[in-house]
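Before drawing any conclusions, I needed to go through one protein's amino acid sequence and its backbone structure tokens, quoted below without any editing.
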Amino acid sequence: MARLVLTDASPLIGLARVDGLGWLESLFGVVWLPPAVRDEVLPGLGYEDERLIRAGLDGGWLKVHTAVPTAPALPDLDAGEAACIRIALAQTEPCLVLMDERAGRVIAAEHGLRVAGTAAVIGLARQCGVISSARDVFAALHASDFRISPTVMKTVLRRVGE
């Protein structure tokens, strides 16, 4: 099991949209995000997603990892993705990076990092009994305009027996 779980913006936003941020705490305990991700998910526009993410920060299970290395150079990624990968690479303990964007996932995997996306978190929540139906969560997520590949959803649903 990963000792350090880092998250990019997309999993936070997606899970907030289905009232699933608390699943992260149930599954992983503390989840870390770089300052660049915090700034992306808390732009101060008053969205419900922001309120829920702020509650995680206030609750202490969602924390900002302020020690962000500047290497390696990752010019093809946005600031949040690059920071997650850099932090993970600087650790001596096992890490899990939560990230949905394909380019970031590929680069993280090329560096030998374990990566999971929003769909995998939903699947894990179902396997651990945190939620009763991954299918219902995927339907709610889809209704919120958050996109996950149908192939990925089918794979997760098959894996959890739905």
